[in-house]
Each structure stands twice: as C-alpha cells, then as structure tokens.
Design goal:
The structure holds 2 protein chains of 2 kinds. By secondary structure, chain A is α/β, with parallel strands linked by helices. Helix content of chain A is 21%, strand content 24%. Chain B is globular, with a radius of gyration of 17 Å. The relative contact order of chain B is 0.19. Classes of the chains: A alpha/beta, B alpha/beta.
Chain lengths: 239, 230
C-alpha cells in the first residue's frame, strides 16, 4: 500500500507556544504529503488539510478526547499524533506498528527550555511520538470514555501504557517501542498542559503549574545529535 | 576509607598500547581508591606495583572464558559488591558508587558504544552489557557457579552471554536472575573494535544502536575520543 495513503497526521495545539511559525515550517517539511487534521484553539493560517477548533480548557483528559474526535474524522489505517512542542523527522512518519499495537518512537531527545541547553534521553513513551492504528485507538478511547465521563488528571495517560490502563480499569493494549532513523525532539517548556511532572505523592502540595518545571532530564545526555545539530543552537528557537 | 566494592578488570592485553595508558588513567581516577583485581594475559606491572591483585587468565580466549575469569576474580574478592571493568570501556566515577537492590544483578544502562571504524558516532541500544555490570559479589558467584556446574567444559559460545539476560539464561537452562537497571548521569563508553570477542565487531559488521549522538558531557566529541584508540 502507498504509505502516504495509510496515515493521517493529527496535530493538536492550544496555540500557546510562541514558536509556532518555526514548528509549523519543520512540521510541514516532515509530514510531506501525508493528510493533516489540525485541532487548534485558534485558526491556523497556511496549514493544509482539515481544521477544527477546540475550546479553552487545557487538560490531559481533553487531549485524549480530541484524539478520539480526530481519529473518527480520519479514514486511514494509522494516526500519527503531532504536538506543537515536537520537532519531527520525515522517517518518524514512516514507522508502522502492527494494526493491533500502539507504536511509540523511542528515538526522542528532550530539550529543556530552562537550564543548560542539552539533549536528554529517557526510555519512555510519549503521546507526541505515537503512531497509532486508528481503529484500535478508537476502540481504546471509546472503552475509556464508556467507563469515565472525564478522566481525572492523575489517571490520564498514553494508550497502550499498562500502568495507565490498569488504573483506568480498561483493557491493557499492546504497545511497542520503535526507532526512527532520524531522531525527533521534544521541547520541555511551561506552556503545556498543567500537571506534567512527577507523579503526586501523599503529602506533596506542589501545584499543577509548578509541576511543569519539576520534570527531570533523562540521564543520557548530548550536546549534538544527528539532523538537529547542537542543543545550544536549536534551543534559540524556543527561548 | 573502607570500600565495599571491588572492580574486576578483564583484559586480553590486545588493545592498543596508548589506549591502554589512557584507559588506565581514566580507570584509576574513577575508582577513587577502590580495590581492583586484574585478570590478564600479560604481566601488568602498573597494577601489581599499586598493590592490586593480578592474575593470569587460565583458559583460552572465548566468551565463556570472560565469565570464568569473572568467577575466579569474584571468589578472590572480599567486598560485598563487584563491578566489571573491561579494557575497551571508560567508566565515570559515579558508576562505581551505584549499589543495586539486594538479590538483583545491576546494569548501568547509560552506556554509549563508540565504533573504531566508520563515522565517529556514539550510539545506544537497549541492551545489557557485561561491561556495565555491578552487583552483589555472592550473587554473581552463585549465578556463575550454576553455569559452570552445568557446563564444566565451558558454556557454548552461541548461547553465552550476560548474567540476567533472560534469553541467555533460558537457552542455558539455568535460573533467570532478577535485574535492576540503573543509570548514571555520566555515561560509560564502550568501544567496539576489531580485537573484541564479539564476532560482529571482529568483522566490523556490527550496526550502530538506534539512539545516536556526536557530542556528550564529560567525554566530548566522538571524533576526538575515538582518536584515543591508538
């Protein structure tokens, strides 16, 4: 099958990041001719494909609700989630897990907008790196929302992540790590959904906003990587 | 200072001379006075002069021999923990400060491979390597004695591998060991070269790991560090 016909890029944005122009240029280079569905809070000029609006609420729960909306609108076998703080490579969109398995690209470097500019790497999955079989995604999200009207912040998480699905009391789906030849880069910043960061422990009163800067770098670190160059140069687009 | 960890240095003395000097400098700095046992083919005066135990390897070069020498050294050591040191790997100080959970074989997963051929690139694969093993000494002895009780003439080359790798232990028909993976903030560097025991390295057919970088903290640029291999 023509790969271009079997995957839709689903771009989710709250239009809060100041680097949107740079991001969109890089995004359009990477997605090439793949169909694009954008779900944004504000109109997005210069983007091809379908655009639909989302409201002001910013939450993890809403991200997954918007994913379900986008997945139902698309018609391809796969959905690739595109986020406004991720820089993608062309070959990221060529990854394909089996149709019953959620795929996550592990070749992801994280670049913090605070502290010494340095790429860091962790062995963990993230929504913005996912390549998801569409029907399996719809099935998984509909199962979640049949059980939960709104998913509480601490229970929301990626499809296929066993810990999340067990906590939600839904079917544990298959997931697999994949590696694109060229890495993708995730920017760690303070414009995102409140509440990211370390899981809340009993007695921890840190508020959800403050949690945004509580994230820790991965232990594997680099100053220069393939395609994206040096961290101190790339970070200039985000600070 | 009382040390509770002994480093076990495994070498065939086949690495380039200047590299061996550089490796020694880095190792002695990283050990911070911790005891060292050297399992080698040729005399290693720098080690014996410093009071480290130096033993000749007593079996031919093979994958099985690596674990045999590790077992011999682990039995000589007296500390609670041991850490493998290989002659093609560079270790940060903090590696030797790690202590995995009791009953678990520990592996430092912050390791970059650097090939001595091709474009100098650090690369990482999600795999446990013997060079990054740091564990309770008695647990290592128990695991290796089990291997060599079952294979008294040495473990078969095609199934020999790290303690705590399920595929290896399943293929050998021995106990699957619990593992704790940990990560230091500074990486271990493992050189891939044509003097290694691994056939893929010998033939320079090994492929880079999926995660790649050119410049990293402490060790610097890959194209500079690879020049040390001379």
């Amino acid at each position: 099958m023509d790969a271009m016909k079997d995957l839709t890029c689903l771009f989710l944005t709250m239009n809060k990041v100041p680097w949107m122009k740079f991001h969109n240029e890089k995004m359009l280079e990477a997605i090439g001719d793949y169909p694009l569905i954008t779900i944004s809070r504000l109109p997005m000029e210069g983007l091809p494909g379908i655009q639909i609006r989302q409201g002001e609420e910013q939450s993890h729960d809403k991200i997954f609700k918007m994913m379900l909306v986008g997945a139902k609108l698309a018609t391809t076998d796969y959905i690739a989630i595109v986020e406004d703080d991720m820089l993608y490579s062309k070959d990221h969109f060529e990854l394909r897990p089996p149709l019953d398995t959620f795929g996550y690209n592990w070749n992801r470097w994280v670049l913090f907008t605070w502290g010494e500019p340095m790429f860091s790497f962790k062995r963990r999955i993230c929504n913005g790196c996912s390549i998801l079989p569409r029907l399996e995604l719809i099935d998984a999200l509909e199962e979640r929302y049949a059980k939960w009207k709104d998913i509480p912040h601490l229970l929301a998480g990626e499809v296929g992540l066993e810990r999340v699905e067990k906590a939600l009391g839904v079917k544990v789906r298959k997931f697999m790590p994949m590696y694109s030849k060229t890495p993708v880069v995730q920017v760690q910043h303070t414009f995102g959904t409140p509440g990211i960061g370390s899981p809340v422990k009993p007695g921890d009163t840190t508020d959800l906003e403050a949690r945004k800067v509580r994230r820790r770098m991965g232990m594997m670190r680099a100053y220069e990587i393939e395609h994206w160059g040096r961290s101190e140069e790339l970070i200039k687009h985000f600070v | 200072m009382k040390h509770d960890l002994t480093a076990i240095f495994l070498t065939q003395n086949e690495v380039p001379e200047k590299w061996a000097e550089y490796h020694r400098e880095v190792l002695l700095d990283s050990l911070q006075g911790a005891p060292l046992i050297v399992m080698c083919r040729k005399p290693m005066y720098w080690a014996s002069e410093r009071g480290f135990k130096v033993l000749q390897q007593d079996k031919p070069k093979s994958l099985s021999n690596i674990y045999w020498q590790l077992l011999r050294a682990a039995k000589i050591a007296t500390t609670e923990y041991i850490a493998v040191v290989e002659d093609d790997s560079l270790y940060p100080r903090e590696h030797f400060l790690q202590r995995p959970k009791k009953g678990h074989i520990g592996y430092n997963m912050n390791h970059w491979s650097l090939f001595t051929w091709g474009v100098p690139t650090y690369s990482w694969r999600n795999r446990r390597g013997n060079y990054s093993m740091l564990s309770e000494r008695l647990l290592v002895i128990e695991a290796l004695e089990e291997r060599f009780a079952k294979y008294p003439n040495g473990t078969p080359e095609r199934i020999t591998g790290e303690i705590g790798r399920p595929m290896v232990e399943r293929n050998m028909g021995i106990t699957l060991r619990d593992v704790q993976e940990f990560e230091t903030t500074v990486s271990i560097i493992n050189f891939n070269h044509s003097n290694a025991s691994d056939d893929l390295q010998l033939r320079q057919r090994k492929s880079l790991g999926e995660i790649q970088a050119f410049d990293i903290p402490q060790w610097g640029r890959a194209d500079n560090l690879v020049l040390k291999w001379t």
